[in-house]
Design a protein that fits this description.
The complex is a heterodimer. Chain A is mainly beta. Chain A contains no helices and 11 strands. The termini of chain B are far apart. The chains are: A mainly beta, B mainly beta. The interface between A and B is medium-sized, with 25 and 25 residues.
Chain lengths: 112, 113
């Protein structure tokens, strides 16, 4: 089965600093990869998804970007963090349409 | 645009009770519906996936049903235990647009010993 590795688990960054969150997947190849954000008291918001290396789609305009340099590596970045970027970031991986989505343990980002 | 709603937002029950969590969605053109569990500060764990052609799925004490035409799903938990305490989320994959999961905001369940 798939295993999703995310790091770091927690991160405290000042406003205006850069960000890089990494996600790697084990146990599958050519997965669809996703970045979700979960803000306090709100549902999961899809930020980016990728169906292959170098193929990134953005769901909402924002201060973040994503890259997929390798088949099982997905990176979330920002050049300058905003207070509103605080939240719980989750990476997910999926294969066929009717197979479960697998999630990492998330990164808690606090922008101060 | 697909919207997913979960009721109730929070639920507190004594150990041993059977309980039902509700999920509704606005667009019935879906590929599947998935139920997840989220423990505090953790990622999501997939519990059950019901394909659009199916009516229900069972795993242990969990049973999920799907009524696609009415846009509803229920998650039934039998003989609840304190270890069941978590947030339960449902999500659907719509047939329109990219095949992404749209999540509800979850039901926070507390089972007291």
């Amino acid at each position: 089965s798939q295993t999703i590795h995310q790091w770091p688990a927690t991160l405290v960054q000042p406003v205006g600093s850069p960000l890089s969150l990494e996600c790697t997947v084990e146990g599958t190849s050519n997965p669809n990869l996703y970045w979700y954000r979960q803000a306090a008291g709100r549902g999961l918001q899809l930020l980016f998804y990728s169906i292959g290396i170098g193929q990134i789609s953005s769901e909402v305009p924002q201060n973040l970007s994503a890259s997929r340099p390798q088949d099982r590596q997905f990176i979330l970045s920002s050049k300058k963090l905003l207070l509103s970027d605080s939240g719980f970031y989750l990476c997910a991986s999926g294969r066929e349409i009717n197979s479960p989505l697998h999630f990492g343990n998330g990164t808690r980002l606090t922008v101060t | 645009k697909q919207e997913v709603t979960q009721i109730p937002a929070a639920l507190s029950v004594p150990e041993g009770e059977n309980l039902v969590l509700n999920c509704s969605f606005t667009d019935s053109a879906i590929y599947n519906l998935q139920w997840f569990r989220q423990d505090p500060g953790k990622g999501l764990t997939s519990l059950l996936l019901i394909q659009s052609s199916q009516r229900e799925q069972t795993s242990g004490r969990l049973n999920a049903s799907l009524d696609k035409s009415s846009g509803r799903s229920t998650l039934y938990i039998a003989a609840s235990q304190p270890g069941d305490s978590a947030t339960y989320l449902c999500a659907v994959i719509s047939q329109t647009g990219f095949q992404k999961l749209v999540f509800g905001t979850g039901t926070r369940l507390l089972v007291s010993p």
